[in-house]
Every structure is written in structure tokens, then in C-alpha cells.
Amino acid sequence: MTSPFAIEEIFPDDTDQAVRLPRRQAGNSPQGLAVTLLADYTVRTRARLPSAALVALLTESGASPTGARTAISRLVRRGVLDGSREGRRSFHRLSREAAANLSAGGRWILTATATTQPWDGYWTLVAFSLPQDRGTQRRSLRGQLRWLGYAPLYDGLWISPHDLTPPVHALLTRITPGAVTVFRAHQADLDTVAGRDPLDAWDVAAIGRHYGSFLDRWRPLLPRVASGQVTGAEAVRTRTEVMDTFRRFPVLDPRLPAEILPAGWLRQPAREVFAAVYDGLARPAEQHVRAVVRRFADGVPDDVRAHTTAELLAGIGEADATETGSCPP
Q: What is the overall mean pLDDT for the chain?
């Protein structure tokens, strides 16, 4: 099985959407860094940042100045950023559609990693058949089903332990009529070794190792975060990295029921460590972003604001999401 961390996109490649968020690549791409930075500090206000400030922040996070400027231009072409000018200065901010997607996506990340409710034992099965000449649609469908928490039990048969949600229903209604069937059913035990456990659609051991690696990486940092030793550019880099890593877990482990998971599952400990790092660095990271923006703008940028996991879960930017009607599940 390919590592789920290699999934090309955390946001679905949905050609019906006007906004094309950047592909998730190995490591931190300049486009991905730019989107994360803007989401973490401007998604609720859609604050305009001087382009020079955004380049400076991206450079601090490891991008080259040329790579940063190229990333900004490409995000404008994708519809993720809006650009404007005042005299010789250029500014960029999240487009309304991108802000809505990112706001809903942040809420989904935390909702999907919360403690699961008791499971009723039913699986949702999505069976589909698309001809070879519809390869692009088939790949897009698979990517979006993965993003929505489904996994392939067999070729053309994807499953989830949760009921059919409105986003999945909307996705499946766009498929060619007669090409998809949906079931809700219990598993029937077979008195033979030929039967495959539905949980085998996910590599549970690999998911557990990813949780363990996450905790090994971030838990030792907690004393420094709690004591205020992580400040400035380091706070921004750290907060960006912990979000970039943690937001992949809802795709890896889409609220798989505790009843069928190994004892001591690390979903909740990982969520607690993520919140401690992300929330603990909100204040110093915001202060540094404001300081960088202030170097390239007149006045104090009051609309640069970090948010906490509680605010993400409550739903920041809901006005934008309501206006556009376009958001991730």
C-alpha cells in the first residue's frame, strides 16, 4: 500500500470548483506554505498583505525569494489569491472562495479527529464502474472519496464506517447515471479464510506508526512552547509545520470506530499535542507576522490575527462560506 501521506492533494481536485488549491507535495512547497500562512493569520479577515511581506515570510520558512514570488503568481492564476496595487506596492489576500474552503477545511480537520461516537456496525459501500476512456474522472472520484474518508476494499468498491453524508451524495450524483450503487450493510462473517475484514481497506498498522511519529516529533517541544521559548520566525515555522502534518490525519484515519481499532489508539493523544503546539504558538506567531507586515506597510496590521483550534472548530469565516456556498466537506 502506498503511504497515505503521499496523497497528492489534501483538498479534492474538483474541476467544478473555481478555486484550485495547490497540490500537497513531499515537503513544504512554496505554494502550500503561502496558503497555510495566509490561512493561519488572515482567513477570518481576508487581510491584504504586502507582497514583499509575504515573500519575506515565505523566505523565513525556507523558500527562495524567486520561488516565493513564483508561488504567489501561480496562486493568483489558480484563483486562490486576489491581487491589487497601491502606487508601487502590490498586495495579495485570499480570494473569498479560497477563504471559505480553508475555513471549512480547518473545521473539518478538527471535527474528523475528535473522539468518535459509538458505532452502529454498519458500513457504507460505494460501488462504481467507469470505462477506460473516463480515466480522469475515475482518478478524480477516487481522490475525492479518499478525502471524504472512504478507502478501497476492492477495485471499484470503496467503503466507510459512516453514513452517506451530503458531500458524498453530491459527489456521486455527478457521476454518469448507472455507473454507481450505494449500500448500507453489516458485514456477514464467512466461515473461511477467504473473507476480508473491511478494516483492511486501511493500513491500520501504518496509521498507528504515523501517529507515533507525530508524537515523537512534537511532544518533546511542549515544554519550550509552554515556557514561551519558541518565538519569532521559529514560532511561525513551527506552527505552519505542525498544521501541515496534522491536517493529513483525517484522510489517514477518517474517524475509524474505536470498537474495531487496536487498544491504545493514538488519535486523541496526537490531537491534544497538536492543539498544545498550535494554540500555544498562536500569540508569538501572530506577533511575528505582524512585525514582518509592518516593515512593508503603513500602520499596525490589526487584521492579521491568529486563531486557535477552538475557534477553528467553532467555524471562523462562516460568512464567506455562506456567501460562496463552496467549501470542503
A: 84
Domain ranges of the chain: 123-185
Q: Where are the alpha helices (DSSP H) in the chain?
A: 30-42, 51-60, 65-78, 96-112, 135-147, 166-173, 204-218, 222-226, 232-246, 249-252, 267-280, 282-296, 309-314, 318-324
Q: What pTM was estimated for this model as a whole?
A: 0.82
pLDDT tens digits, 153-193? 988 899 999 998 888 888 888 876 668 889 999 988 766 55
End-to-end CA distance of the chain: 25
3-state secondary structure of 87: coil
Q: Which three cell numbers stand for residue 102?
A: 480553508
317 pLDDT more than 70: no
Cα–Cα distance measured from residue 146 to residue 203, given in angstroms and rounded to the nearest whole number: 13
**pLDDT on residue 206:** 93
Q: What's the CA gap between 61 and 59, in Å, rounded?
A: 5
Q: Residue 45 carries which DSSP code?
A: T
Indicate the SS3 state at residue 151.
strand
Radius of gyration of the chain (CA): 21
Q: Do residues 80 and 19 lie in contact, with contact meaning Cβ atoms separated by under 8 Å? A: yes
CA–CA dist 52, 99 (Å, integer)? 21
